[in-house]
Amino acid sequence: MRGFVFSAVAGAAIAVSGVPVGASGSVDSAASFAGRLLNAHNVERDRAQVPRLRWSRELARDADAWAQSLARKGRLEHARADQRRTMGENLWMGSAGYYSAEDMIGGFLAERAHFRPGAFPQVSRTGNWADVGHYTQVIWPSTQEIGCAVARGGQHDFLVCRYYPAGNMIGQTVG
């Protein structure tokens, strides 16, 4: 069975350790999986007219540790706030080996259909901010860095993306 699920929290990675990162924080190889994850975020941020993200090795290491933990557990759950510190977190899970980087991030971006600009959490046409929480983290204007990792567990791949500083902050405007 092919499918995916995902989860986002306020204030949130295929293991990408060893990904070449330039001094500026950009991923050197746009063709790399990490480069494709970063590019998918930045294409949407360009569309939303917010500053592009830089790749962070530190965030990717944190994301990798959590992705490995999720793969061992075989289920999605957010890291505790004290584990994430000042990082935002988006999670995704899908059938192992089936989804591309763009498909994974595309799940977050599909929430744009329910998004309406405004002060968080009043940002969803459905009235439920959780329906757009991944998307708002992707386009959060003050977020500057991202690091992601993916780990394979049993039948699923687990993507963890960490963002700094975190988005989805109550009372702040997005869009």
UniProtKB/TrEMBL annotation:
The SCP domain covers: 32-171
Question: Pfam families, per this entry?
Answer: CAP (PF00188)
Gene Ontology CC: extracellular region
- List the SMART domains: SCP (SM00198)
InterPro entries in alphabetical order:
Allrgn_V5/Tpx1_CS, CAP_dom, CAP_sf, CRISP-related, V5_allergen-like
* Source organism, top-level taxon: Bacteria
The coiled-coil segments of this chain are none
Q: What is this protein called?
A: SCP-like extracellular
